[in-house]
Write a structure and sequence with these properties.
Helix 12 packs parallel to helix 17 and helix 12 runs antiparallel to helix 18. The protein is built from 18 helices and no strands. The protein is globular and about 55 Å long. By secondary structure, it is mainly alpha-helical. The chain is 81% helix and 0% strand.
Length: 405
């Protein structure tokens, strides 16, 4: 059992303070969803189609997933601190590129470059696992992401307000300022938590099979990927449903769009309270069922002809609650399958989750039009929710096999 590390705020000779981890954990979510209410206006600004502009979500997620495969081993090799600082600096440059982009093609290029901010989520989780054992790590990850869940909850609202008052570029200036604050706080507070590997990067990547041949790693990863897949599909299709299907303004899309984050906040709070006593497996299992329940109920309401902004966005709270239970606990589980590969596992698990999310986001955006309504999105979300349940049941079966039951 690891002893709790000594932490002093703004002392980079000690492990990071929880406030630093909270800000790092939230940056990826903020960058991913703060600008979403601006998509219709950005479509007009760049004189393109909505489906092209919506690629700013799918491409971001795709590059984020690919980067995470590399970021984990890099941090195991060189340490969490230098990889974090480099990634955040590149993010600032990419954000400036988005602001001054003269065409949609240039914007999408720099939007993909912004995905390097994934380093913040990946390595904040790895740092927690460096500091604590599995169940305590799940609890800490829960508290970290609970504290930052408030920001993704309100960031689309602020994005909508900034867009309405100052134009879409104002949202990206806000992201630049947040990125600069995060970079400074990381430099000032985050001490190294990893024991640097003496292996070459080639040797680091050769350790991937040790994770890829583990059924438990796959089970935890797929449970997180499919459960969050429902949310990523929502990211790709939710703005369309709000603005086109229901005719809402960017401001109100931003207000309603944050509904899943309310559930995510409470899911992470429950994880922080109960992870050490209930255990990660039970909480992940409960979370997958809650996630599926919310999507199923929303679909039934639409099939009965009673779909409304309140039912659609309100029931997404259950999706957020399920994700708040699944993601921190499944993450702690996958990082604990091979503790000496925590950074690699965090990157690979994140790549599986984000890569799948990119595909689902693009699929949801492409499947929706004025004649289909919200149905394609809800069917996609239901399929991924049920797949998450099956994945976690497979983990429970595997653990019973290991225990000889």
């Amino acid at each position: 059992m690891k002893q709790a590390p000594v932490v002093r705020f703004l002392d980079r000779t000690t492990p990071p303070h929880i406030s630093t981890l909270i800000l790092l954990a939230g940056m990826s979510a903020i960058v991913m969803n703060m600008f979403l209410p601006s998509l219709p206006k950005m479509t007009d600004h760049f004189q393109t189609d909505y489906s092209i502009m919506q690629l700013s979500v799918a491409l971001y997620l795709g590059v984020s997933g690919a980067l995470q495969v590399v970021l984990g081993p890099l941090s195991d090799k060189f340490g969490r601190r230098p990889v974090l600082l480099t990634g955040l600096f590149v993010f600032l440059l990419a954000t400036l590129g988005c602001i001054f982009a003269p065409s949609v093609e240039v914007f999408l290029f720099f939007r993909m470059c912004q995905a390097v901010v994934a380093v913040a989520m990946v390595l904040s989780r790895a740092a927690v696992r460096d500091m604590f054992e599995q169940d305590q790590a799940a609890s800490m990850i829960g508290y970290v992401t609970m504290g930052m869940a408030v920001v993704p909850m309100v960031s689309p609202m602020f994005g909508g307000i900034l867009d309405q008052q100052f134009g879409w570029q104002a949202t990206f200036w806000a992201l630049f300022l947040l990125g600069a604050l995060t970079l400074w706080l990381t430099w000032a507070d985050l001490g190294e938590t990893a024991v640097k590997s003496g292996k070459t990067l080639t040797a680091q990547f050769k350790e991937y099979p040790e994770l890829l041949t583990s059924p438990r790693f796959w089970g935890y990863s797929l449970a997180a990927a499919f459960c969050s897949g429902a949310f990523f599909a929502y990211l790709g299709g939710g703005p369309f449903v709000g603005s086109v299907v229901f005719g809402m303004s960017p401001f109100w899309v931003g207000i309603y769009f944050g509904a899943p984050a309310i559930g995510y906040f409470f899911g992470n709070m429950l994880t922080g309270i109960y992870a050490q006593t209930v255990g990660v497996n039970k909480l992940v299992t409960i979370g997958t069922f809650i996630n599926a329940f919310g999507v199923t109920l929303s679909l039934v309401i639409f099939l009965l002809g009673f779909g409304s902004p309140l039912s659609f966005f309100g029931l997404m709270t259950f999706v957020g609650l399920g994700n708040g239970l699944v993601i921190p606990n499944a993450t702690a589980g996958m990082l604990s399958v091979r503790p000496h590969l925590a950074g690699t596992a965090s990157g690979l698990g994140g790549a599986i989750m984000i890569g799948g999310g990119a595909a689902l986001s693009a699929l949801a955006g492409a499947a929706l039009n004025e004649t289909t309504g919200a149905f394609p999105l809800l069917y996609i979300m239901l399929a991924t929710s049920l797949a998450a349940v099956v994945s976690m049941l497979a983990v429970l079966y595997r653990e019973r096999q290991i225990a000889g039951l």
